[in-house]
């Protein structure tokens, strides 16, 4: 028989997912709901929760159903995707609920945490209760392996601001992971380029590399690190959030100049040095070895 009227509009706006209370609010009777289930028009997903058989199973429908089934709120990486901060839904629906719930026998992983948020931490997006964007960005930054890069992109695209992130940390200081998130925000708010240079110096000394100098002028440009005898330069940058179009243009011009005079350049940013410092140093060593070979000149 199909759905029409208010319930059809509701299903269309809610990914084909509806609770019994929502269906009643749309004007259906309990008997009409049972009839839809008996005919196979609606499929029971959990107690009092249904999916219209005419609507496809999507990431959105499963997230919405999980949040409703657990009577919780979407947070962490799932909330990041819902807010548009991530392009792909990470494996496992992440949500929080006030009381522990029995796991659902669904073909998707649900990572639920027992947690109560304050009212200021939550919002509603497409009629789904969800952690606000600044808090979501912070929690996701400590969940992802490349969390600092994720947070950098969120700042760079102005999806969140430093002020919003700092306020969210202060308002949710007791949440697991906030200490690490606070450290990332502190780096973002500071001169991350200088911090990256200091860390790079430490890595160079730990590996016993010599022959390098800092702040070497070549023509109109100043190199962060250089091996003059081998004509190698290393440029260090901080978070992309701090770089503007002019800085990007200067970096390209500098790279072109070095190429024109026969120098080789390596470029590392804070994330690369902080997360994979040994890989960065190994690239430097490989280039030194290559440039030290007479046949390579």
UniProtKB/TrEMBL annotation:
Protein name, please? DUF559 domain-containing protein
Query: Which Gene3D superfamilies has this protein been placed in?
Result: VSR Endonuclease
Ranges for domain DUF559: 191-286
The residues forming a coiled coil are none
Q: Which InterPro entries match?
A: DUF559, Restrct_endonuc-II-like
Lineage runs: Bacteria, Bacillati, Actinomycetota, Actinomycetes, Mycobacteriales
